[in-house]
Amino acid sequence: MIIDASVILRAFFPDEAQAQAQELIRDHISGHARLAAPTLLLYEVTNAIVQAERRGRISDEVGEEILAAFEGLDIELEPVTWQQMLPLAREFDRSAYDAAYLALAQSRGEPLVTGDLRLYDAVRDRLGWVQYIG
Question: Which of 35, 93, 101, 117 is most buried, judging by how many CB atoms fall within 10 Å of its CB?
């Protein structure tokens, strides 16, 4: 199962809708699900932590705790090429970042779970394997 950064952030941020995202993480930890993502996931999660710290949403210490816990999840990270991303970014008028998650899910034949409603709304009519967690 492919997840995007929004799922990780929902699982760890106390002011997000956490229950479903945390359940998915628990399933991964217990071996009932295997989570994967493009290598981009590390950068997106780290950037979200930096932004949350700057805005005073979380402390620096909490940011480091979230990143350490995220690292400990051992989510499989896989590179995605521009040749995989570009057609999907164009077709659905999405960013290359969104397209990376779509491309990985498509190439592996696995569902993509997202907490990004704009991404979900943009693709749900044509990509039934994209699931919204919210």
Answer: 101
DSSP classification of residue 19: H
pLDDT digits (tens, 9 = 90+) for 44-57: 999 999 999 999 99
pLDDT tens, position by position, 86-118: 999 999 999 999 999 999 999 999 999 999 999
d(CA 63, CA 45): 10
**Count of domains for the chain:** 1
Decide: pTM greater than 0.90: yes
What phi and psi, each to the nearest 5 degrees, are found at residue 76? -65, 125
Beta strands (DSSP E) in 1-134 are 2-3, 36-38, 76-78, 112-114, 130-132
CATH number at residue 23: 3.40.50.1010
Look-up: residue for tokens 């521009």?
82
Partners of residue 76 on adjacent β-strands: 36
